[in-house]
């Protein structure tokens, strides 16, 4: 008899969805292995904004997760727009340049609503409207971006805390400071357990099935330089320090098939004042995503991207990388008083640099070529628009015309002092490269056959994301494939 029915490696959203799903499916003995100690548990999930992108045809369907939304936010169910499966599909295709794995993204989209409802009902995760992330206040109503409408209450901290509560309530054993170090196999190549490194050293633990849910390699500087190349080795890490690629290493070593974009990653513009590894006290507050309402310049005094290409949730995951590539991996985001009220509340975690003229502002910034910076800002102003048709709630087409790159929406002149500047660098969130899994979350080997007894979910699944990512999809992917992996592992014989 194996020691456990199912061992789940990791303790983030995907892992705890898997563990609870295995329990629900009938697995009697489920073990969760968490490499971190109890104070640092929960992976990137703990740091996340808790935003959940799901498909629904009628906003009233959201009542299942946020029954009070209409009372808390007047007009909520009238103002939210439907986000059909084909809308979600179109977004995923567009931002991944048609590279998303068709089979996996269909599973993700088709199960998104039901799984998040399950996480709410069975997983015990309270949810709320994500008004500060995807809503823009217009008068006393809110204009919502499509799809990413709800989030876990108290964001990632709430999501993680409530998953742990449910896991404990379901009497699922959790071992902290116990990282999986190797996979055990039988003569047929099937996985029969794990070798762990815990407080008492190495130990072999057997199980009927193993679910790998221990994140990507975003916190591992060597792997970052190997797969993502410079300058990713010195990127600041936005989440946990524990996702070092352990699960990928173990699985590849027994012949798992690498899948997806191994040079791809999710990164975001974050404050350059943040430490190299994220701070658990401030979790997701490092983001600097309101650049569509301003301009960004680098240390050489140049703009380097179309700040207004799209709303932040569709460009932030690639612009972190753009900023990291700039000299010194630094950019300055500059706003004036016409748009300052549109900055996300997270900007309040930094003190902006302020001045009454653009020249004085540039003088105060860490910029090597200050005359060029002033020239860039004036050239931008000469090409920018007045605010008559400015509309922050949609792509308004207010574009510069003769700049390279142009700013193609929300290109208002910077002419209302005081001007303010916030620093930004690129912070890495998670890596896109992973393992190939099938519709049952079974890990596929390099012989294109499932590796018996091995399942995988969360960031470790490869193929869904390439180049870019629609905000709020990572947690939903973790929950969808976690639920499937747990069910499949519990049923595995
Ligand atoms: C700052 C930030 C904000 C984000 N905001 C959002 C958001 O709003 N919406 C969204 O959808 N996504 C968001 N994301 C992305 C999202 O958090 C991740 O995609 C998701 O949490 C990944 O879940 P996971 O379970 O795969 O991995 P994780 O939550 O990272 O969990 C991995 C677990 O594995 C453990 N582990 C690692 N190695 C081992 C080992 N050898 N043995 C045992 N355990 C191990 C870790 O300690 C951890 O518990 C955000 C991420 C960050 C960092």
Summary tags:
FAD/NAD(P)-binding domain; 14 helices; 29% helix; 493 residues; 2 domains; Flavocytochrome C3, Chain A, domain 1; alpha+beta; 8-stranded mixed beta sheet; binds flavin-adenine dinucleotide; 21 strands
Summary of the model, kept short:
This protein is an alpha+beta fold.
Each distinct ligand:
flavin-adenine dinucleotide
Calculate the mean pLDDT score and round it. Answer: 96
Q: Please, how many helices?
A: 14
Task: Quickly give the CATH architecture of the largest domain.
Answer: 3-Layer(bba) Sandwich
Radius of gyration, Cα only, in angstroms? 23 Å
Give the C-level CATH assignment of the largest domain. Answer: Alpha Beta
**What shape does the CA trace take?**
globular
Whole-number total of structural domains: 2
Through-space gap between termini: 13 Å
Could you name the CATH homologous superfamily of the largest domain? FAD/NAD(P)-binding domain
The major β-sheet equals: 8 strands, mixed
Please name the CATH topology of the largest domain: FAD/NAD(P)-binding domain
Q: What percentage of the residues does DSSP assign to strands (E)?
A: 15-25%
Describe this structure in words.
By secondary structure, the protein is an alpha+beta fold. The protein folds into two domains: 4-217 and 432-491, FAD/NAD(P)-binding domain (3-Layer(bba) Sandwich); 268-427, Succinate dehydrogenase/fumarate reductase flavoprotein, catalytic domain (Flavocytochrome C3, Chain A, domain 1, Alpha-Beta Complex), CATH 3.90.700. Helices cover 29% and strands 21% of the residues. It contains 14 helices and 21 strands. The longest helix has 20 residues, at 102-121. Flavin-adenine dinucleotide (FAD) binds at residues 9-15, 33-36, 42-45, 47-51, 179-180, 213-215, 238-240, 242-243, 246, 284, 429-430, 458-459, 472-475, 478.
């Amino acid at each position: 008899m194996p020691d456990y029915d199912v061992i789940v490696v990791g303790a983030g959203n995907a892992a705890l969805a898997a563990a609870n799903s295995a329990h629900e499916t009938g697995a009697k003995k489920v073990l969760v292995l968490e490499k971190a100690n109890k104070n640092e548990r929960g992976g990137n999930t703990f740091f996340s904004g808790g935003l959940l992108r799901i498909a629904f045809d009628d906003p009233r369907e959201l009542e299942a997760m946020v029954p009070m939304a209409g009372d808390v936010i007047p007009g909520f169910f009238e103002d939210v727009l439907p986000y059909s499966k084909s809308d979600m599909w179109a977004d995923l295709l567009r931002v991944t340049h048609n590279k998303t794995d068709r089979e996996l993204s269909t599973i993700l989209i088709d199960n998104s609503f039901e799984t998040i409802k399950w996480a709410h009902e069975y997983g015990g995760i309270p949810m709320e409207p994500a008004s500060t992330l995807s809503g823009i206040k217009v008068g006393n109503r809110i204009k919502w971006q499509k799809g990413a409408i709800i989030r876990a209450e108290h964001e990632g901290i709430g999501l993680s805390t409530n998953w742990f509560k449910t896991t404990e309530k379901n009497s699922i054993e959790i071992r902290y400071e116990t990282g999986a170090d190797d996979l055990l196999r039988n003569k047929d190549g099937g996985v029969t357990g794990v070798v762990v490194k815990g407080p008492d050293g190495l130990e072999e633990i057997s199980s009927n099935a193993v679910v790998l849910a221990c994140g990507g390699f975003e916190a591992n500087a060597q792997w970052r330089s190997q797969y993502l190349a410079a300058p990713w080795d010195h990127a600041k890490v936005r989440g946990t320090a524990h996702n070092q690629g352990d699960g990928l290493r173990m699985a590849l070593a027994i012949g798992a098939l690498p899948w997806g974009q191994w040079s791809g990653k999710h990164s975001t513009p974050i404050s350059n004042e943040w430490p190299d590894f994220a701070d658990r006290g401030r979790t997701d507050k490092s983001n600097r995503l309101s650049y569509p309402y301003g301009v960004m310049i680098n240390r050489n005094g140049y703009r380097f991207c179309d700040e207004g290409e799209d709303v932040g949730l569709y460009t932030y995951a690639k612009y972190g990388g753009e900023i990291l590539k700039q000299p010194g991996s630094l950019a300055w985001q500059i706003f004036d008083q016409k748009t300052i009220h549109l900055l996300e509340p997270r900007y309040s975690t930094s003190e902006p640099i302020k001045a009454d003229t653009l020249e004085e502002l540039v003088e105060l910034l860490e910029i090597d070529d200050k005359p060029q910076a002033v020239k860039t800002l004036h050239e931008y102003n000469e090409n920018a628009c007045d605010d008559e048709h400015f509309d922050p709630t949609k792509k308004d087409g207010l574009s510069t015309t003769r700049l390279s790159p142009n700013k193609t929406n929300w290109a208002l002149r910077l002419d209302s002092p005081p001007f303010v500047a916030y620093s930004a660098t690129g912070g890495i969130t998670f890596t896109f490269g992973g393992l190939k899994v099938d519709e049952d979350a079974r890990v596929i080997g390099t012989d294109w056959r499932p590796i018996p007894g091995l399942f995988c979910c969360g960031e470790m699944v490869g193929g869904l994301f390439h180049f870019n990512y629609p905000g709020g999809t990572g947690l939903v992917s973790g929950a969808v494939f976690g639920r499937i992996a747990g069910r499949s592992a519990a049923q595995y014989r």
